[in-house]
Amino acid sequence: MQKTAIFAGSFDPFTIGHDDIVRRTLCFADRVVIGVGINKDKHYTHTTEERINSIAELYSDEPRVVVKGYDDLTIDLARREGAQFIVKGVRSVKDFESEREQADINRLVGGVETVLLCARPELACVSSSMVRELSRFGADISKYLPKKTEK
Questions:
Q1: I want to staple 110 with a disulfide (CB 3.0 to 4.6 A). Which of 11, 39, 66, 75 is the partner?
Q2: pTM, whole model, 2 decimals?
Q3: Residues 19-71: tens digit of each pLDDT
Q4: Is 18 tagged catalytic?
Q5: Which domain CATH number covers 51?
Q6: What percent helix, strand, coil does the chain show, rounded to 5?
Q7: Do 120 and 28 contact (CB within 8 A), yes or no?
Q8: Domain that holds residue 131
């Protein structure tokens, strides 16, 4: 049986921390679906299409990773994709509490388990909001964004 994981978020932008979670998930999942959330009430710095395309390009040489936009519940995406679990990155105790509550709801509502992966210590401070803030003030954010590696 193929093991499919959902890794969902707004990914505005997709950071080296996100990339690390995806690559670590590939160690125990056969397929990772990166779900790019679409929330009409949120104001993004990049369009949904830009976010999906940039992430898809990053993994264009990795057939086990697919990128899809979605505008409903993550658990609905998990059902559509036949996922056995949802993967979330956790950087702090605050993240843990929030993600634990969401994991409980996803298990109750959809019967899908959540796997929490702790951020590597050197990446624990990296977040999309931090990268957006640095960018807004003209700082070089390139070291926080993943680069496509050639095989």
A1: 75
A2: 0.94
A3: 999 999 999 999 999 999 998 888 899 999 999 999 999 999 999 999 999 99
A4: yes
A5: 3.40.50.620
A6: 40, 20, 40
A7: no
A8: 4-144
**What are the tokens at 24?**
């670590």
Which member of 31, 51, 88, 91 is catalytic? 91
Q: How far apart are the first and last CA of the chain?
A: 28
Q: How many domains does the chain have?
A: 1
Pairing of strands 85-90, 65-70: unpaired
Both tokens assigned to 59: 């993994």
- Which residue among the candidates 18, 31, 51, 88 is catalytic per the annotation? 18
Q: Is 46 one of the annotated active-site residues of the chain?
A: no
Alpha-carbon distance 21 to 36, whole Å?
15
Assigned domain for 151 exists: no
- Residue 88 annotated to the active site: no
